[in-house]
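Ticket #203: bound-state structure for magnesium ion.
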Amino acid sequence: MRVFDAEFIVGANSPEKFPKTNLPEFAFSGRSNVGKSSLLNTIVLRKNLAQVSSKPGRTRQINFYNIENKYIFADMPGFGYASVSKEERQTWVELNTKYFKGRENLVLVCLLVDSRIEPQKTDLAQIELLENLMKNYVIVLTKTDKVGENSLKKLIKEYEFLLQYCNFVVELLPFSAITRRGRDELIAIIKKFAEKWNQMKSK
Ligand SMILES: Nc1nc2c(ncn2[C@@H]2O[C@H](COP(=O)(O)OP(=O)(O)OP(=O)(O)O)[C@@H](O)[C@H]2O)c(=O)[nH]1
Ligand SMILES: [Mg+2]
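RESOLUTION: The complex was predicted; output attached.
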């Protein structure tokens, strides 16, 4: 399996600090503790590129990474963590919305959801936002090493039902940072979207 060159660019807590770049960007979003940083590390096969939290809700900024000078990955702050104050939640909503609305080179969002639990209100709100903004997204079901195949199938059916009128969902992808299930598929999707973006840019 190939290890990717990857370099941290910047952590940004406001739009002025977002890096200026012409590369296609991929955002990794999802509730606190769902496994965003672990997924990033699994994709690039580096243990500590993105910091895995011992406590949920620790990432408060968007962390940008340059991957092989081909892609930008944005590790989004986690949402939905119960003990976060109202003000902090509001700050999160603002940063999140500004990012998705204004980021022109954003080609695909990977929305991570926990495969062990029912779809959560906050996940559905994020789906609604992406649909409204007409952003393509993949729903990644994380931590599948912790769930039986039957429950996983049931959950996928439930998501399919919820997503039946959604137009911008690209795929529902089971994933595990432990077994690396879904890694190759996700890389293939990322490559495809990056190619499309590059073709559009060169016209
Ligand atoms: N079993 C299992 N555990 C996982 C997997 N992915 C992440 N974890 C664990 O889940 C916890 C949270 O993982 P992170 O990658 O830090 O999650 P995050 O979404 O980046 O968290 P925040 O940045 O706080 O929002 C850690 O204890 C990880 O080791 C997985 O695929 N399988
Ligand atoms: Mg994280």
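RESOLUTION NOTES: The chain has a mean pLDDT of 92.
TICKET STATUS: resolved
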